[in-house]
Amino acid sequence: MKVLHIPQSLNGYEVVTLIAEQVSEKNRLAVITKEGDDTIYMTGGFLLMDTPKVRKTLDAIPKKDLWHTLYELRQRPWCKRKYYEPQEEVNKKELDELLNDKFDELVDQGL
Description:
Elements: E1 2-6, E2 14-20, E3 30-34, E4 40-43, E5 46-49, H1 52-59, H2 66-74, H3 92-108
């Protein structure tokens, strides 16, 4: 599949053939070959579909800023992962006593 490749080391983009989305389970780099070259490469660069609309958008961005612009667009805002209501603070001593009492109850019941 022909895709557009935007590595950090290149000003602009190049057309490459995407061989696999990742090398293996542990190595998540994509596998590509370059136009006119049968050498297989691993890349961590951006890979985008090769469509006229995508090319037009990429051509509107200065070549030297292309990778950094895409990097900024792909970054997700970070905040805490899950929302939850704050819970009341529990005194550690009270919690230990509660757990010990519950454990003693379970032992008495033979569980």
